[in-house]
Write a structure and sequence with these properties.
Elements lengths: L3 H21 L7 H17 L3 H26 L3 H7 L2 H17 L7 H7 L1 H9 L18 H17 L5 H14 L2 H8 L4 H13 L14 H17 L7 H13 L3 H20 L6 H21 L11 H8 L8 H16 L1 E5 L4 E5 H21 L6 H26 L2 H6 L3 H21 L6 H15 L2 H8 L2 H23 L4 E7 L5 H9 L4 E3 L2 E2 L2 E2 L3 E2 L10 E2 L2 H9 L6 E6 L2 H7 L13 E6 L4 E7 L4
Parallel strand pairs: 3-4, 3-9, 7-8
Antiparallel strand pairs: 1-2, 5-6, 9-10, 10-11
Helix pairs in contact: 1-2, 1-3, 1-8, 2-3, 2-8, 2-13, 3-8, 5-9, 7-8, 8-9, 11-22, 12-13, 12-14, 12-21, 13-14, 13-15, 14-15, 14-19, 17-19, 18-21, 24-25
C-alpha cells in the first residue's frame, strides 16, 4: 500500500478551490462539493462516448488547467494574498484535519460487507478491467443496472494512480473518497458556522456533522454502501435550495449535485426529481432561470443511463418490472390471481411503517422506534421550526421545502411496496429485505436538513447548545463502531475475515488460465466466498456461480424455499451443466460437506475425497474433473 492514490486525490480535489479562490475570490469550501461532483460527471460523459478511460485523463487535464488558469490570474493581479485569504480559513484547516483523521481510519481498510464486495467496490474494479461501464455484460457485474456516480470518481482516481505511479488497485482509497465526498457536502455550511462560532465551538459542530450519519447507518465508517451518502447529499440539496441566497456558490453546486444524485442509485432519481422541482418552484417565484439547468441535467442523466442499460442489455438480480395496476389492487385488498408470496408481501408491507422500527444506539443504549412515530416527530419538528422562523420573518422556502419532502416521502412509501412485490425474490419480498435501510435513507434526508437549519440559525447560543447536542449524539451514536474506526480495528478484522477467501482467490488465479470460466462450489456458504473470490480474481478469472436469480455455489438434495442460497442439485444435473454445456473450464471447491462428498465424488478423477481449496479442470471428453491444485492439509 502506498500514498499514491492520496496524492492524486488531493491534486484533483484542490484544483477547483484553487481556481475559485484565484479567479472568483471565493473562500475554501464554497465550491468543494462542486469539484467532487463534476469529476464523476465528466467521466460519465466520456463513458457515454465509449471512451471511459479517456475520461480519467480528461479530469486530470481539467484539474491541471484549473491550476494554470488560477496561477495566471494571480500573476496578472499581482495579488497572491488571495490564496492566503481563501485558504487561511477554518474550513480549510477542518478539511485537512478531517482528511488526516479519515486517512488514519481508512488506510488499509478492505471491502468487508456483502454489498461492498458484491457491488460498490466490485463495480469500480470491473470498469478498470473492461474500460467501460459495468453495465457491459462482459464485466459480469451482478448489478449492472445500478447507476455509477460514486463509482466513477473512485474509478478516476484508481486509473490515474495506477497509470501515473504504476500501483495496484487500492481498496482503502475507495472508502476514503467515499468518506471525504460525504464530508465535503457540509463544507459550505461550515463556512457559515465559522463566521459565527469560536474555534472550540466550531470544532464541536464539526464533530456533530461527522457523527450524524452514524446514527442511522452504523457501519458508515467501514463501508462504501451508497445509501448514507445519498441521504446526506439529498439533505444538503434540499437545504441549499431553501437557503441558497446565503451561499454564493449554491446554484453552481446544485447544477452538478442534483444530476449526480439522479445517477447515484435508482432511488436517487426520486430525490433528484423532487429537488429539481423544488428548485424550479423557487426560481419561478424569484423570476429566475437558474432552476432549469439542474432539471435538464437530471433528465439527461437518467435517460442516458437507461440508454446505457438498453444498449448493453444489462440485467441485475431483480430484473422484473412492477405491475402497478395489480399492486394498487393488492393494496386495496383485491389480490386476484397473485402468487401467495406476493399477497403476503403486500400484507406485510401495509403494516411495516407501524411495525418496523429504526434501531438507534449502541451496546450500552438501544432504542427501537417505530418509523411512523419517527417520521411524525421529525415532521412535527420541521413544522415547529417553520412556525418559529415565520414569527421572525425568516421562513423563506421552509414551508415549500416541507411540502416537497412530504410529497417525496409519500411517493417513496407507495413505490417501495410495488418494488418489493415484483422485483424481489420471494424470500426477500415476504421479509421486506433491507426495509430499514431504505426507509432510514428518507429519515436521514430530513435529519440532515433539520441539523443544518439548526446550525445556521444565528439566534442559537453556540456554546451551550453545541455541547448538549454533541452529548446527545454521543449517547445515541454507535460508540463501539466509532471506537473501532479510531483504533484502526476495522483493517485488522477485515483482513482476518477475508484472509481465507483472498488466499483461495490467489490460488485460483495462479492455477487457472487467464480468462477461464470457473465454477465455484462453497457448500453451506451464504455467498461470502463467491463475492470475495470473484472480486479478487478480476480480471484474470471469470467466476460464474450466479445465473439470474439462482445461486449455484451450494448444493442440496431437495430445494429449500426458505433458503435462496442453496440449489437443488443431483449428480446427473451437475454433470450435464459441466460436461454438456461448453461454459466452464474449471471447478474450484472452497468448502465441502457430507452431501457433496457422497453425491458427486464419482466425477472426480483419482481421488477418494474432495478437499477444501482444491481446483479441477473440466474434461468434457472423459466427463471427469481432473485435479489441478489441492492445498496441503494443515
Amino acid at each position: 500500500m502506498t500514498m499514491a492514490p492520496l496524492i492524486i486525490f488531493c491534486f484533483l480535489i484542490l484544483s477547483g478551490d484553487y481556481l475559485a479562490v484565484s479567479v472568483f475570490r471565493c473562500k475554501f469550501g464554497e465550491i468543494t462539493p462542486f469539484t467532487f461532483c463534476i469529476i464523476p460527471l465528466i467521466a460519465y460523459i466520456f463513458g457515454l462516448l465509449n471512451i471511459l478511460h479517456i475520461g480519467a485523463y480528461a479530469v486530470c487535464f481539467f484539474a491541471a488547467g484549473a491550476y494554470i488558469v488560477g496561477t495566471v490570474f494571480l500573476y496578472k493581479r499581482r495579488d497572491f494574498s488571495l490564496l492566503k485569504n481563501g485558504f487561511y480559513e477554518y474550513t480549510f484547516v477542518t478539511f485537512l484535519i478531517v482528511g488526516t483523521l479519515a486517512l488514519w481510519g481508512d488506510y488499509g481498510q478492505l471491502a468487508s460487507g456483502y454489498d461492498d464486495i458484491g457491488h460498490w467496490q466490485d463495480c469500480v474494479k470491473t470498469m478498470i478491467c473492461i474500460d467501460d461501464f459495468y453495465a457491459n455484460p462482459i464485466g459480469h457485474s451482478t448489478f449492472g443496472t445500478y447507476p455509477p456516480f460514486m463509482a466513477l470518481i473512485q474509478y478516476v482516481i484508481q486509473v490515474l494512480q495506477m497509470s501515473v505511479f504504476g500501483t495496484e488497485f487500492c481498496e482503502w482509497i475507495n472508502i476514503y473518497i467515499y468518506h471525504m465526498f460525504t464530508f465535503s457536502l457540509f463544507l459550505p455550511v461550515m463556512g457559515i458556522i465559522s463566521k459565527k462560532a469560536k474555534w472550540t465551538n466550531y470544532m464541536i459542530w464539526v464533530g456533530i456533522i461527522i457523527i450524524l450519519p452514524t446514527i442511522l447507518f452504523q457501519r458508515v465508517f467501514a463501508s462504501t454502501m451508497i445509501d448514507p451518502f445519498m441521504s446526506v447529499a439529498a439533505g444538503v440539496m434540499f437545504f441549499l435550495i431553501a437557503k441558497r441566497k446565503e451561499f454564493r456558490c449554491s446554484n453552481i453546486i446544485l447544477c452538478a449535485l442534483i444530476p449526480g444524485i439522479a445517477i447515484t442509485k435508482d432511488l436517487g432519481l426520486l430525490f433528484a426529481a423532487f429537488g429539481a422541482a423544488f428548485l424550479l418552484y423557487c426560481s419561478v417565484k424569484e423570476k429566475s432561470r437558474c432552476g432549469i439547468i439542474p432539471l435538464i441535467g437530471t433528465v439527461v442523466a437518467k435517460i442516458s443511463w437507461n440508454e446505457v442499460i438498453r444498449i448493453n442489455h444489462a440485467v441485475d438480480a431483480k430484473p422484473n418490472s412492477v405491475n402497478w395496476y395489480n399492486y394498487v389492487l393488492a393494496l386495496l385488498g383485491e389480490y386476484g390471481d397473485l402468487e401467495e408470496y406476493k399477497i403476503q408481501c403486500v400484507s406485510n408491507y401495509r403494516r411495516a411503517l407501524f411495525d418496523k422500527t429504526a434501531f438507534i444506539g449502541n451496546s450500552f443504549l438501544k432504542v427501537d422506534i417505530s418509523f411512523f412515530v419517527l417520521f411524525a416527530v421529525m415532521l412535527l419538528t420541521f413544522l415547529l421550526w417553520y412556525m418559529k422562523m415565520k414569527r421572525r420573518g425568516k421562513q423563506g422556502y421552509l414551508l415549500a421545502n416541507l411540502i416537497f419532502y412530504c410529497a417525496m416521502l409519500v411517493t417513496f412509501l407507495f413505490g417501495l411496496g410495488g418494488v418489493y412485490m415484483d422485483k424481489f425474490v420471494y424470500t426477500e419480498a415476504v421479509s421486506l429485505a433491507s426495509y430499514t435501510r431504505y426507509v432510514n435513507t428518507l429519515v436521514n434526508v430530513l435529519l440532515v436538513e433539520l441539523v443544518l437549519f439548526y446550525l445556521t440559525d444565528s439566534s442559537i447560543p453556540s456554546s451551550r447548545i453545541a455541547v448538549i447536542t454533541l452529548g446527545v449524539l454521543l449517547i445515541i451514536a454507535p460508540i463501539n463502531n466509532i471506537f473501532s474506526y479510531i483504533t484502526r480495528a476495522y483493517p485488522r478484522t477485515q483482513h482476518e475475515a477475508r484472509k481465507d477467501a483472498d488466499l483461495f482467490a490467489q490460488e485460483i488465479v495462479e492455477n487457472c488460465n487467464d480468462g477461464a470460466n470457473v465454477y465455484l462450489v462453497s457448500q453451506r456458504d451464504r455467498g461470502w466466498d463467491y463475492l470475495v473470490i470473484k472480486f479478487m480474481s478480476r480480471p484474470s478469472i471469470c467466476l460464474q456461480s450466479i445465473v439470474g436469480d439462482d445461486y449455484n455455489w451450494s448444493f442440496v438434495k431437495e430445494d429449500d424455499p426458505n433458503d435462496i442460497y442453496v440449489k437443488e442439485m443431483s449428480l446427473e444435473r451437475w454433470s450435464n451443466e459441466l460436461f454438456e454445456e461448453d461454459m466452464y473450464d474449471y471447478v474450484a471447491i472452497s468448502k465441502v460437506d457430507s452431501y457433496f462428498q457422497e453425491t458427486f465424488i464419482s466425477i472426480f478423477m483419482n481421488i477418494d475425497n474432495v478437499l477444501p481449496h482444491s481446483i479441477y479442470r473440466v474434461n468434457r471428453e472423459r466427463r471427469l474433473l481432473e485435479p489441478v491444485y489441492v492445498r496441503a492439509e494443515k
